[in-house]
Design brief:
Elements: H1 2-31, H2 35-46, H3 49-54, H4 57-73, H5 77-92, H6 97-113, H7 117-134, H8 137-153, H9 159-174, H10 179-194, H11 198-206
Length: 207
Amino acid sequence: LGYGRDFVSDAQTALDDRMRVAAAYVDGLIYANREEDAGTYARTLLALPAVLEDATPLRVAELRYAWVGALKGRARYAEAIEQLDLIRDEFDSDIDLRRRGWFHSDYGTCLRLLGEYSRAQTHLATALECARRSGRQRTVAGVLQAGANLAHAMGSLSKPLELLHEAQLLMVEGGGDTPFDHAVELQVVREFIQLGRLGAALDKLES
């Protein structure tokens, strides 16, 4: 009987390991700008009864979340929300606050792009709380950028810059010089231009 339990445990571990590799593979396809292939791969796996019935719920949720990235890349935000709804309980109970923060940030971003600003605010507030509690500056900065995008979409003149400046301070403390840092810099420039502060925009570009 003990051997039987060990066999079941080993099989479960092997399946979960394959699921983690599958989610990483989907992420890799997205990074290579192959969102359609990523979506097809994830959708095919998630249609297999063995995956849904035998893999642990968290591993299934991780694969669905990777698929969300592919859907976002194809601007299929309503479908992304459908997948996020299916895995929300798993991520809301996740002890990894950083991952929970990214989940709600992505949820809020999809809602923003669908024009559902009130719901987006709720999810981004949750995301920011989780990010701050995680102590991960990069995560906090990422959520602040998402909040700046929402504030801009809602027509705020001052809030986007306020959130972006806080994000930049965190990135300076982290000593980073990444594509994300540069994206935020350009976002700040765009906000200055939006406000008619062309001098400030030029100073930022030249700094």
